[in-house]
């Protein structure tokens, strides 16, 4: 019996099925089969998920309603929920299984692995902006590019940036003069400064040759993060089909245009320099800020101890190799990218742009947040700021000389304050991975199923009372050597850890030490708001929703403009 006789209504007058009829005729069984396959393929995941604790769900939506409201509300609600259910918590957003991990032993299993390196599907929202750059890519492409890029943030390269870190920090001090005595948002200044520092160091182009200000770029990035955050939390904005019909999509296109126009110009400028045989940064440093005039020799064999540039044994990564090979010539990031692209085999032009976009974003917004939280902490904890200032006075007296690398090694208390800031307010509050294989946890009798999205809650791990007694108190002594010695390595992971750790970790620490010490050599920070007034907002990067309001008072004579 033919299909046409069985269902005469589907047949044309000639008795032959029309293409539309065949489509609908096949669609229903295809959907039924797909649904059956989907159910069976998820059976294993559902069984394993069933055993993991989590808040009650509603049909179809799961826990999606928890993600309604403003960003600070969502942050507070999800954070509080996570306190109720222990160190392994599951949540369903529709059919999507998310598992939050906060036991450092479990976190180690995921982050130290060379297998679980795939980023969660949410990172795809970054694609129109960052393409397949280091933050998002995976597999062979990520491995090859990581191998290429990691050495460009080697300590020997970073030491060559010190004069530029100093010159740019001096510029910030001068710009801040107009804010003295007033309450203002220091994040604006930190964003602009961190963009300009990146341009002049890793990218090697003078900020003066850019017709677009670092501030415009930073503001575009901030608004872009707002849109990405909306897509993460508002589940109806996730499908491209729906998102593209909203006004957010148009706003996103405009912002990406602003962002990409800066990165395109930077690459063009660098290529022109490269063709002229110019290597290294073209940014200029005033003679009085050149550290060669002051450097109290730190030999290339000096053991770089402390938390800034080294890592505790259990966290060693590809950034920790060969730090003692002072003679080996290494190139800065964009110089190396351009050179490596000459034959187009290792990296092509489009890939360079993706990596430049990635480094520009990861390298500025994180440190802008970190430095703004640090200044807020100094403003609130005057007694702690006194100790930082005392240390700086012991190192520099009342000289205006630039900070040398050796000086940064002496800034031990400032370093502890910085670490404590990154503990309480980690700029990257969560890390998300997509599991391809089941993973057995050590903290309890749970197995994470393949296909689940794993969320590592740095912001919560850093406040576990069993690891940090009195976790909500800003206490730089948490980073005294005797306290860190017995702590699980994965209990402090502001820069993530393992093979996908932050490639700019040492860059960030060196830059922050020079930037923040220069500011505190000139100003004292004050804050009328206390930590209990902070409205934390985790839109990709952790921020204060109300802005980073502080006041500055001159400490001593200001440096000459
Ligand atoms: C305080 C400052 C910083 C913090 C707290 C921070 C934190 C992090 C974290 C947590 C990750 C892992 C993200 C994830 O897996 O989703 C990461 C990755 C990354 N960071 Fe940073 N970062 C900082 C500064 C920088 C700087 C200055 C640069 C570059 C100049 C940079 C470049 C990168 C890159 C390229 C990745 C991706 C690495 C990979 O997947 O192989 N970061 N960062």
3D architecture notes:
It is built from 20 helices and eleven strands. A hairpin with a 6-residue loop joins strand 5 and strand 6 (447-448). It starts with a helix and ends in a 7-residue tail after the last strand. The chain has helices spanning 3-6, 19-50, 71-84, 104-111, 127-130, 139-149, 155-159, 162-176, 186-200, 214-233, 240-243, 247-275, 333-340, 349-380, 382-396, 405-410, 412-424, 458-461, 481-485, 505-522; strands at 88-93, 96-101, 183-185, 431-434, 439-440, 447-448, 453-456, 523-526, 536-539, 541-544, 549-554. The strands form four sheets. Strands 1-2-7-4 form a four-stranded mixed sheet. It has a three-stranded antiparallel sheet with strand order 3-11-8. Strands 5-6 form a two-stranded antiparallel sheet. It has 561 residues and is α+β, with helices and mostly antiparallel strands. Helix 9 crosses helix 10, helix 9 (186-200) runs antiparallel to helix 14 (349-380) and helix 15 packs antiparallel against helix 17. The protein binds protoporphyrin IX containing FE (HEM). Protoporphyrin IX containing FE is lined by residues 134-135, 146, 202, 358-359, 362-363, 366-367, 370, 427-428, 431, 494-496, 500, 502-504, 507-508. Residues 134-135, 146, 202, 358-359, 362-363, 366-367, 370, 427-428, 431, 494-496, 500, 502-504, 507-508 line the site of protoporphyrin IX containing FE (HEM). InterPro entries: Cyt_P450, Cyt_P450_CS, Cyt_P450_E_grp-I, Cyt_P450_sf, Cytochrome_P450_Monoox. It comes from Rhamnusium bicolor. Heme binds at residue 502.
């Amino acid at each position: 019996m033919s299909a046409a006789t069985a269902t005469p209504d589907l047949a044309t007058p000639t008795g032959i099925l029309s293409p539309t009829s065949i489509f609908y005729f096949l669609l229903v069984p295809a959907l039924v089969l797909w649904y059956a396959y989907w159910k069976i393929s998820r059976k294993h995941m559902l069984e394993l998920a069933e055993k993991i604790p989590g808040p009650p769900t509603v049909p179809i939506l799961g826990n999606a309603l928890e993600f309604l409201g403003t960003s600070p509300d969502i942050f507070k609600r999800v954070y509080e929920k996570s306190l109720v259910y222990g160190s392994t918590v599951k949540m369903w957003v529709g059919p999507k299984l998310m598992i939050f991990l906060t036991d450092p032993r479990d976190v180690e299993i995921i982050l130290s692995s060379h297998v679980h390196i795939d980023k969660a599907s949410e990172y795809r929202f970054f694609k129109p902006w960052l393409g397949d750059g280091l933050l998002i890519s995976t597999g062979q492409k990520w491995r090859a590019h990581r191998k290429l890029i990691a050495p460009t943030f080697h300590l020997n390269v970073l030491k060559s940036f010190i004069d530029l870190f100093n010159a740019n920090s001096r510029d910030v001090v001068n710009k801040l003069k107009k804010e003295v005595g007033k309450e203002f948002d220091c994040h604006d200044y930190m964003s602009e400064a961190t963009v300009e520092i990146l341009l002049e160091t890793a990218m090697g182009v003078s900020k003066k040759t850019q017709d677009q200000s670092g501030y415009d770029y930073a503001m575009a990035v901030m608004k872009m993060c707002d849109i990405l955050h909306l897509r993460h939390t508002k589940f109806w904005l996730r499908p491209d089909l729906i998102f593209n019909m909203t006004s957010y999509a148009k706003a996103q296109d405009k912002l990406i245009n602003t962002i990409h126009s800066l990165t395109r110009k930077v690459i063009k400028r660098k290529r022109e320099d490269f063709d002229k045989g110019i290597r290294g940064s073209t940014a200029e440093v005033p003679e009085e800020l050149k550290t060669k005039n002051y450097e109290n020799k730190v030999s290339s064999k000096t053991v770089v101890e402390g938390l800034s540039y080294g890592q505790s044994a259990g966290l060693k990564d590809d950034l920790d190799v060969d730090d003692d090979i002072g003679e080996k010539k290494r190139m800065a990031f964009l110089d190396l990218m351009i050179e490596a692209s000459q034959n187009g085999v290792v990296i092509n032009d489009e890939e360079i742009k993706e990596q430049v976009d990635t480094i520009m974003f990861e390298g500025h917004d994180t440190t802008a947040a970190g430095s703004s939280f640090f200044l807020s902490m100094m403003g609130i904890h005057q007694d702690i700021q006194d100790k930082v200032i005392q240390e700086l006075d012991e190192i520099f007296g009342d000289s205006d000389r630039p900070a040398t690398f050796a000086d940064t090694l002496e800034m031990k208390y400032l370093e502890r304050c910085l670490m404590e800031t990154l503990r309480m307010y980690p700029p990257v509050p969560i890390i998300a991975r997509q599991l391809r294989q089941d993973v057995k946890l050590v903290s309890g009798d749970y197995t994470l199923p393949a296909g689940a999205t794993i969320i590592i809650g740095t912001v919560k791990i850093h406040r576990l009372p069993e690891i940090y007694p009195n976790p909500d108190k800003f206490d730089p002594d948490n980073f005294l050597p005797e306290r860190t010695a017995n702590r699980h390595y994965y209990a402090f992971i502001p820069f993530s850890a393992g093979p996908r750790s932050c490639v700019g970790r040492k860059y960030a620490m060196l830059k922050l030490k020079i930037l923040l010490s220069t500011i505190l050599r000139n100003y004292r920070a004050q804050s009328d708001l206390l930590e209990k007034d902070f409205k934390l907002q985790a839109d990709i990067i952790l921020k204060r929703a109300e802005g980073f309001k502080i006041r500055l008072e001159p400490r001593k004579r200001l440096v000459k403009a």
